[in-house]
Amino acid sequence: MINFESVSKQYADGHEALSDVSFSLDRGEMAFLTGHSGAGKSTLLKLIMLMERASQGRISVGEQDLSTIIKRQIPYFRRHIGVVFQNHRLLYDRSVFDNVALPLHISGMNHRDIGRRVRAALDKVGLLSKEKLTPIQISGGEQQRVGIARAVVNKPPLLLADEPTGNLDPDLSEEIMKLFTEFSQVGVTVLIASHDLALIHHMHYRVIELNKGRIVEASFDGERDV
Amino acid sequence: MSEPSKVSGARSTQSQSAIANYFKHHSEVAKTTFRTQIDKPFSSFFTCSVIGIALVLPCLLMLILADLQSVSDDWEDSTQITLFLKKHVSSQNASALAVEINKKNSIHTSAFIDKDIALATFKEKFDFAEAVDSLDENPLPHVILVQPVNTLTKIEHIEQLKVSFLKHDEVDSALLDVKWVKRLNSITEVLSKSFWLLASMLSLSVILVLGNTIRLAIESKKEEIIVMKLVGGTNAFVRRPFLYMGVFLGLGGSILAWILLHLIVYLLNQPIQELSSSYQSDFYLSGPDFESTIFLLILGLSLGWLGAWLAVRKHLDDMEPN
Q1: A79-123 pLDDT, tens per residue?
Q2: All domains of chain B, ordered by start, with CATH?
Q3: pTM (global) more than 0.90
Q4: Is A102 in Cβ contact with B227 (below 8 Å)?
Q5: Range of the domain at A96
Q6: Within 13 Å and on the Cβ side, how many CA atoms surround A86?
Q7: In B, which residues are within 8 Å of A105 by CB distance?
Q8: Which chain A residues are within 8 Å of B222, Cβ to Cβ?
Q9: Is residue A48 part of a domain?
Q10: Chain B 236-265, CB below 8 Å of chain A: which residues?
Q11: Phi/psi at B143 (nearest 5 deg)?
């Protein structure tokens, strides 16, 4: 699903955020991306979403070479990727329902289908009863779940998450991670950037660790200490 | 929402519903944007007023110009050349000349006024009986009044005609009273030039004011724009509400301008009619008619759209998530 071949990313100021990164993720696979802040986790996610372009190397997502996607096509490409952000990035001037419906409105779906899909996504994250509230009226954990519902409402084959449990307590974090596990079980490829090592080790999924822009270890167990 | 037709094939039903969704989305964006503007009546009214006032000036000038043009056309229609004949010319010769002139294609009518009849009229009308009686001889010459045909409207052509009369031996001098027509024409010329200057400057200012308003709106919705782009919103999708905002503000501005125009015409007409009646004219300002109303609305709408489009091009398209 995701394939990185010797990818490097150098910013205009000369800072090299990623050096010679190679890895691949199969369809339906779930993996964690770890490392200290500044290790290049965010840059790697940005490259997948085409918020940044690689300086060197080749990235493909779902068999599509990202270097062949021109600027105008980026929005259509992004509709196939669900993204969950640490700070949720919800819109506070509209209801939970409208927040989740946003990607569907953008892709031009009709109203009846939107209602059905949004309620299914909200039901999945356990917030069906709160669709009329605004994000300010619900808790931080619930806001993150709204963010997840918005990311999956389009049924994307790939789900990215950038520190999805960054601001949550352990119980809530576990709940969120459980949701991601469920998505991967139905065939969604899931890549989660996180430095919540205790939680990651507890989950027994593949871990891709970055250090100063390089992959230091890619392991399948959570037994290793940093 | 209407049910897709069951007769047509699946593919065309699909594309039909895509088009239907597109228009539905447009009407929703329009409605939402309109409601957002209504929800902040003060700032919307302020922006519309600025646009309205900027539009009123050139529109008023345009109305005045159109009215002046019709007056000047009327005046040119009534252009008349007065031929004063030489002293020694007899009544018969003068009358014959008038008939001869009348035969020309460029002449509508020509009338001979005998100097004795003229003096009698003069005596009668102006109560100068004693003064006239004291004169040894009639100081007035024979006069022929010549009216060119209506199709001859250019002053230069009438001037040429006037000069051609001087070739006749009997004609002493010819007088063409076009000073007022000339003046009016140059006033119209000045006004028409200022109209274009004023109109382009004020249109530019409308575009700038709107562009700035839209820029502020874009800045205040930065987070929303970025989120939309992150979940796959195209530039067209993201800019749509801002373009509608520009169109609505422009339209609101032109509606205000229309109301202001009526008010100004109403307030100005009394003093204008007093002034023009002192020049024996019944000139007055007519308010905006149906055509100028439509023109005004389209003008406001397009300027609004243009201002929004420029702001969106400059500030929104390059706004990328990071």
Answers
A1: 999 999 888 889 998 999 999 999 998 988 888 899 999 999 999
A2: 28-74+183-315 (no CATH), 80-177 (3.30.70.3040)
A3: no
A4: yes
A5: 91-155
A6: 11
A7: 25
A8: none
A9: no
A10: 237
A11: -130, 140
